[in-house]
Design goal:
heterodimer; A: 4 domains; 13% strand; B: Rossmann fold; 6-stranded mixed beta sheet; 19% strand
């Protein structure tokens, strides 16, 4: 056994607690991977946290930067990491040495919730290592015991990168990794569940439509006459014929680069590592609210109903309150747990279905209770089939938004601070969903790898009302040019005007696209 | 299937992690190196613009380091806005500040870096960078005795103690616990009354701390001819001089004397703000400085660094000779070095530095520097600190 294992082994009294808590959690219906708890000192905890929960990653200064920030805020008493758990089979979770017994029990109960979520939520199926791409993620499987040995995989990645560094120099490899990491958000969050489409195949989700000019209904026949539509249609099918056979990479810029960029062997391997790891973390970003909410829901139930005795309840309450505190930003723990409880209550009382939707009598709605008791079943279903976006889209109601004090904020240049903008339900929900969809990342898709027939890369930023931050965009494009080894173009919108940014590896220039291209 | 075997396989890759040092030390060192590199690159700018001065905490300076963040295609947080949770009406500040900073590091997820980076660098580290960049020699301590002082630090909690040290939060929490455990707590009438056994008090340990055994005595001419720009230069110089000498001596005291025709001691803030319109008698400051040393800083125990800044316009030649006399007989025998910085001003004649030069050209203990403008600050710091005294 390694010395790491020896030193971090759980003391026996906590082992007993673990067995007791896991039994209680199983009895309550949770279904989790085997979980290994380790006890870490605070500096080890900060280290593991900086590495995203893993004991070993590839070497990179960014981890050192995260470590510095974590250590600082610990030293200053601003924050302290109580728990860390890795989506791995078996799962690994870390306890902070020197925490009180109540805290440790709280963490264990919380971790049971997380690991149940890792195992059962559909998004995490994308991290099953031996699963085929394009597999149906919500099919339930008996005795589901996937290969998720990501600890080993990350360690292998580390070894790989370290070897290249030893051969080619740390500086060289690290600089290339910088370029790769700066585009690690250019991946397709849903790609693992979709077989890759070719460009000539119509998107099954979108009805096939011939592009029309915008017109009021009575003008339709004049503005979009049949001959015009026929021309449009012909254009469309010609386009399709030209594109025939080409893969539609969509948002998976990293995938496209791996397959098409002129990379040396080591560059390919480094970029591959970055893409794999970025994809590994996607489900955690997709389900931050759901995952924390689920874990909090269960720690609170298990702790207050089963685990604690009377003398411990105050310490628990204090800790729990500090985890649930809101100070202006969305607290995923709080929002998540409240939304599960809200859903549970609604389904317990039968507040769903057509009859409920159609009921407009405020008083009747308030006292609506069909005593169906379907709440528990419903939240288990929700934790299996939703991600943050669909969870909020489906269950966030105006009443809930008011009860949770939600608002939108914006930056005020006059006061140079962020200010509350509105509590209007529609706006709140829109902002919330926008910041959760693809993690609030801009939509950037691959257009062409042979732009203007000069083997230049052509990316398209699908503008959704917000411009890219220009200094960051310029620096990112320089990294892209380093990977692509030829000039890189990005079509975007700056201040309401279409522009094509062009980076030749040294300088960035921008041009307005010619009309008609 | 849980158990030691599983565990060992997963952890096999992390051998030695806990044994010697942390694996992340390497990454951390790489990061610190990058930061140091950036600071060194921009040192001249940091020095001349004086932008670090306002960012100084007790032992650290937070430095905005350009382009250390990983670039990404992303939106501007300011334009993006977002959704939040909490009290407040439209137009109120969110959570009293920046909503991005709210969440802290409760759980390490995969959040990308949020802002252009501000790195905290300790003053010691900054001094090292300054030292390396300007190739400053380390100061030779004159072999003076180190003074140790014993201080009380409130670090613990105990069950007995004076009322004045009672910890309210802990006391009431104990009381609440006791009442719940003994079923005296009534949820409908939530009243918590501590009894004697519940009381908790803060307690202290005695900590031995080295106290300053070096003192800098800053003297500045605040006569009418010294304008804001001249004072800004002095302010920036004093920041770096402080930082460097602080690095050399554990604990350092700074004293401040302003003078026009008369001299008085002031605190740091007043030192940089005072503006008088009177004439200039430099000897008044030297006299006060000498008295200060005599009364409070016996030269057997203290390393003494007087720094004098002026535009070099003294009232009379008589006063100048008096200055020379005080310097030779009273100050120079006890100080490590005597530094005079002459800040160029449109009104001053700049005669004083010439007089000093005439008298002390060969004296190692006297360091003279002419500072024309902000760009000259770096050179002048090197002149002042370059002799390693």
């Amino acid at each position: 056994m390694s010395e790491f294992a020896l030193k971090t082994k759980l003391p026996s009294y906590l082992r007993q607690e673990q067995d007791r808590i896991e039994k209680l959690a199983r009895d309550a219906g949770l279904d989790f991977f085997p979980t290994v708890f380790e006890m870490l000192a605070y500096d080890q905890m900060n280290e593991v946290a900086a590495y995203g929960g893993f004991p070993t990653r590839y070497p990179h200064w960014r981890f050192g930067m995260d470590f510095e920030q974590l250590s600082k805020s610990y030293d200053w008493g601003l924050s302290k990491i109580y728990e860390l758990v890795i989506n791995n089979n078996p799962s690994y979770a870390y306890l902070l040495e020197g925490n009180s017994l109540v805290d440790q029990k709280l963490v264990m109960a919380h971790v049971c919730g997380h690991v149940d979520f890792f195992k059962n939520n559909y998004t995490f199926r994308s991290t099953d290592l031996d699963a085929a791409e394009g597999r149906d993620p919500i099919r339930s499987e008996k005795d589901y015991d996937p290969n998720r040995r990501w600890i080993d995989k990350m360690a292998n990645h580390g070894e790989l990168v370290r070897r290249h560094m030893a051969r080619l120099g740390t500086q060289n490899v690290e600089e290339f990794m910088d370029s790769c990491l700066s585009i690690d958000n250019l991946i397709d969050w849903h790609g693992r569940f979709q077989p890759r489409r070719r460009k000539d195949e119509p998107d099954p989700d979108l009805a096939e439509e011939v592009p029309r000019l915008k017109a009021k209904s009575y003008m339709e026949a004049f503005i979009n006459p049949p001959e015009f539509l026929a021309k449009q249609k012909k254009k469309q099918s010609e386009e399709r014929a030209r594109e025939a056979g080409r893969v539609d990479w969509g948002r998976d810029v990293l995938g496209f680069l791996l397959e098409n960029a002129p990379l040396e062997r080591w560059e390919y391997e480094c970029l591959h590592v970055v893409r794999e790891e970025a994809l590994y973390f996607v489900p955690q970003m997709q389900t931050k609210i759901m995952n924390e909410g689920w874990a909090s829901y269960w720690h609170s139930r298990l702790m207050t109903e089963k685990i604690l005795d009377a003398s411990e309840i105050v310490d628990y309450a204090e800790r729990n309150a500090s985890v649930m505190a809101t100070n202006g930003s969305i607290n995923p723990y709080k929002l998540g747990v409240e939304l599960y409880r809200y859903v549970e209550e609604r389904w317990n009382k039968g507040q769903f279905g057509r009859e409920w939707e159609n009921c407009t009598d405020v008083d009747e709605r308030r006292h609506w209770d069909r005593r169906l008791g379907l709440g528990r079943e419903k939240i288990f279903e929700v934790r299996r089939l939703h991600n943050d976006v669909t969870f909020l889209d489906e269950f966030l109601t105006p009443e809930f938004a008011i009860a949770q004090n939600l608002f939108t904020y914006n930056h005020s240049s006059r006061h140079d601070r962020f200010e509350i903008e509105s509590r209007e339900f529609k706006q709140v929900k829109e902002k919330l969903l926008f910041q959760l969809t693809h993690g609030g990342n801009p939509t950037i898709v691959v257009k062409d790898g042979n732009f203007r027939n000069r083997s230049e890369l052509f990316l398209h930023h699908v503008h959704e009302g917000l411009d890219l931050r220009s200094d960051y965009a310029a620096a990112t494009m320089s990294g892209l040019a380093r990977i692509w080894k030829r000039p890189v173009n990005l079509q975007t919108v700056v201040d309401g005007k279409f522009v094509i940014l062009h980076h030749d590896g040294r300088d960035l220039t921008s041009a307005s696209p010619k009309v008609g291209t | 299937m849980r158990g030691e075997e599983e565990f060992a396989r997963g952890a096999a890759t992390s051998v030695h992690l806990a044994v010697m040092s942390l694996r992340i030390d390497q990454d951390h060192a790489r990061f610190r190196n990058i930061v140091r590199g950036k600071i060194r690159q921009n040192l001249k700018r940091y020095i001349t613009s004086g932008e670090l001065l306002g960012r100084k905490g007790k032992d650290v300076v937070s430095i905005p380091v350009p382009q250390i963040d990983l670039p990404r295609f992303r939106f501007d947080d300011r334009k993006k806005g977002g959704a939040g949770q909490g009290d407040g009406a439209a137009g109120d500040a969110v959570g009293g500040g920046d909503p991005q900073e709210g969440e802290g590091g409760r759980k390490a997820g995969k959040d990308a870096g949020q802002h252009a980076l501000e790195v905290d660098v300790t003053l010691d580290e900054l001094a090292d960078i300054l030292g390396e960049e300007l190739q400053l020699p380390h100061v030779q301590n004159k072999g003076k005795a180190k003074l140790i002082d014993v201080k009380d630090r409130y670090t613990g909690i105990r069950r007995v103690g004076p009322e004045s040290l009672k910890s309210f939060k802990r006391t009431y929490r104990e009381a609440l616990k006791r009442q719940i455990a003994s079923k005296q707590y009534d949820v409908t009438r939530p009243i918590v009354v501590p009894i004697k056994e519940d009381k908790r008090f803060r307690s202290w340990n005695e900590v031995a701390e080295p106290v300053a055994n070096a003192v800098i005595i800053y003297m500045m001419d605040v006569s009418g001819s010294m304008g804001d720009e001249q004072k800004e230069i002095v302010r920036i110089e004093s920041f770096w001089i402080d930082a460097w000498l602080q690095r050399q001596y554990k604990g350092l005291e700074s004293r401040f004397i302003v003078h026009d025709a008369t001299a008085r001691e002031v605190d740091r803030d007043t030192f940089f703000r005072t503006r008088e319109s009177g004439g200039t008698m430099i000897s008044s400051a030297y006299k006060l400085c000498s008295k200060m040393i005599e009364d409070e800083y016996p030269s057997a125990e203290w390393n003494i660094y007087p720094f004098h800044f002026s535009d070099g316009d003294n009232w009379s030649q008589d006063d100048t000779s008096l200055c020379m006399k005080i310097l030779r007989n009273e100050l120079l025998p006890v100080v490590n070095m005597f530094a005079y910085g002459q800040v160029e001003s449109p009104y001053g004649s700049g005669q004083f530095i010439k007089d000093l030069r005439e008298h002390y050209k060969t004296d190692e203990r006297v360091i003279l520097s002419e500072i024309r403008d902000k760009d000259a600050i770096m050179g002048s710091i090197k002149e002042f600190l370059g002799r390693g005294r």
